[in-house]
Request: fold
Amino acid sequence: MSSPARKKVLLMGKSGSGKTSMRSVIFSNYTARDTRRLGATIDVEQSAVRFLGGLVLNLWDCGGQNAFVDNYLSSQKDTIFSNVAVLIYVFDITSTEWEGDLRYFEDILFALRENSPEAGIWVLINKMDLVDKEDPKRRKYEERKSDLLGVDERVRKELKDDGIREVLRCFPTSIWDESLYKAWSSIIHTLIPNISLITAHLTYLRDLCLAVEAVLFESDTFLVIAKSGSPLDCDPTDLDEMEIENGGKELDQQRFEKISEIIKGFKKTSSRNHEQYHGFEAKFDDCTVILEPLTKSTYIMIISVDPRVETGALLYNVHQASAHMV
Ligand code: GTP
Reply:
């Protein structure tokens, strides 16, 4: 068996922005409420997460207090910023020190682009739940995003970057809703080595089932790994720009991540009651849905709107397919 691909993921941002909270909700089954008892991270906390058998994420959760960050940028610079696959930088939208936050971010970007030029950069503007009610159009988020893109451009210019490298990508997040899953699913999607093959298999199975959508979830985190459906055979981040219409009704672009959040919560409640979540099937007037284990490390959701399709047929196809998927 080939050894799994190892990817170094840096989790950075000012103290209290929510880095350890995110990591704990996604990878350690914490609820958002549980994170209130987390203490500040001292220096760097490393952990390894195995994902889908073929991928190991080496997560470096870098404590965000100024003294630590100054060290990362000086004596620890080579250790921290070399061989990075992805930087996830977390901002607190409620921060009152935005100018200072940006200066630190710029220093980090320089260090990263110099030491790991190919690294992907994702910025999560967190704690959106605290501002969404006063600012439903998310103007503050858009302003912050535009400042961040400006910083990225300045860094590239100074490093005489020819523009080949990807620009940073920004997501609004909150640990209290599915936006956290949306952001992390998009990030992880880019790290899975054979993702186009997985998506091709998913599409093949969806066609066989006469289904409109098929979605693959990782079984522990319930992050969305791949999607297939008429407008869905793409990088999940592209969906942000896309109008998805369904018979005149606009579909919720975070509908699968909502399912991630709901099922994860349900699994947690089940295990507290010494029960195990095995799967879900439902038949509505014009729609059949199943959400079943596909392999040891994945669940699959299939949605059909063809009235001829029976739940049993979908289950049979998934059972047959599981033998071909690892
Ligand atoms: P350091 O370890 O010091 O670098 O901080 P950190 O970035 O890891 O912050 P941490 O995850 O410890 O979170 C600090 C506090 O913010 C905790 O009390 C969390 O419950 C809270 N928090 C994190 N994310 C959110 C969010 O999306 N919304 C709200 N309202 N609170 C959050």
Observations:
- The CA atoms of residues 91 and 125 lie 5 Å apart.
